[in-house]
Specification:
- About 45% of the residues lie in helices and about 20% in strands.
- It has two domains: about 70 residues, Chemotaxis receptor methyltransferase CheR, N-terminal domain (Chemotaxis Receptor Methyltransferase Cher, domain 1), CATH 1.10.155; about 200 residues, Rossmann fold.
- It has a seven-stranded mixed β-sheet with strand order 6-2-1-7-8-10-9.
- The protein is globular and about 60 Å long.
- The relative contact order is 0.13.
- α11 links the parallel β7 and β8.
- The longest helix is centred in the first third of the chain and has 18 residues.
- The protein has twelve helices and ten strands.
- The chain is an alpha/beta fold.
- α5 crosses α7.
- Bound molecules: S-adenosylmethionine.
- S-adenosylmethionine binds next to loops.
Length: about 290
Amino acid sequence: MLRKETFLRLRDYIYEKTGIYFHESKMYLMENRLQNRLRELGLSSFEDYYLYLKLGNENAKKELLNLYDVITTNETSFFRNPQQFDALREIIVKEYLKNGKGPSFGLRIWSAACSTGEEPYTIAIVLLEIQERTKVDLPFSILATDLSPKVLESAKRGVYSEYSLRNVNGALREKYFTLTEEKNYKLKEEVKKYVRFEFMNLMDLEAYKAFRNMDIIFCRNVLIYFDERAKRRVLENLFKCLKPGGFLILGYSETLNQQRFGFRPILFPGTLIYQKGWENEKGNDS
Ligand SMILES: C[S@@+](CC[C@H](N)C(=O)[O-])C[C@H]1O[C@@H](n2cnc3c(N)ncnc32)[C@H](O)[C@@H]1O
């Protein structure tokens, strides 16, 4: 049984490592999620599990990755919150095509907290469709990152269930997926090749250095698990990672305070997206 005292220790430890904050009402959720870890390690109490993590040796480091796998919520799907992909098409890409920036340099896109890959692959599909329709060459590359090694492995495989594709119409299914014997959908290489998956912890300030000069950042449905302090830390760093004039797309319930972060909100039917001001030209590499 998970005692309150141990819950609080584990809660603080998880928060410091990941930004994910378990409210006291989530004590049973944590207990459920960690149960298997105790069993696998042959430990008899949650207190021992906490001490095991705190050992700091190689085993503890390995276990930390397993902990990330079990404490994260990885719910996602293709074209989740579809208005945001309409905004990508109608506002963001149009602006780049107008400026001529996309075609000459290539768009650098980051899907932070990508889970099993549906989000970055949806972005790739949207951009491929635009290119086909407009006959305009629009080079792009997508970096997709997550904290959970397990979801990253699944993302690299690129095989999805019917449920994951519930918002994908028949024509797109036909064009970009092949049906497996198990009646799953395997994404074609022509989409997969645009996306590179990497481990990245949004709470690791050092890690952001590898993600500078982005044109577009999707960071959706992850900040809802963070408290205000962790959220601010992530948003300040995402801001630095964007080029001036770059765009940030958050989840539906994750609006931000524009004054604090220097983002300009843009209203698109059904969603807000954020643009980093051009006046931040110098602040980009601080
Ligand atoms: C609910 S999913 C969102 C997936 C996708 N962005 C979407 O909106 O459909 C949240 C993801 O955030 C990841 N995550 C949680 N904390 C993180 C952190 N500190 N750094 C990076 N990713 C994190 C989880 O592993 C999970 O895959």
